[in-house]
Amino acid sequence: MRAVFVAMAVASLSACGGGGGSSTGPTNHVNTPPPADGISVNNNSFSPGTKTVTVGTNVKWAWNSCTGADPYGGSATCVEHSVTFDDGVSSPLQDQGTFNRTFNAAGTFNYHCSVHGAAMAGTITVQ
User: Fold this and answer.
1) Is-contact 49 42, C-beta < 8 A?
2) What is the pLDDT of residues 81-117, one digit of tens each?
3) CA dist., res. 4 & res. 10, Å (int)
4) Which residues make beta-bridge pairs with 122?
């Protein structure tokens, strides 16, 4: 059983790797509004969940998974998520900031959060 757990942990960590995108994360815990044509990374969902773009389009994801400061003056509570594509391109696991990916070929690109799996997934269709 332990071997299964270790294998799952290794697979989870490797899902955060990859390349082909860029990511930023501010040091103060604030939500980052996505551009009008971007995607918001909310707590447990991407909004919009599906998007159709043309070849050569750069799509920007912005993390909006922070809730307000606690009543005792503490910082906001933020939840970590990733944008992890089936082809291996991935953002880091982060609780704020942005991630960009340019789509240079037509096709359907499925992605999910490496923490939440299929429960938090989206699709980019490139025409």
Assistant:
1) no
2) 999 999 999 999 999 899 999 999 999 999 999 999 9
3) 10
4) 111
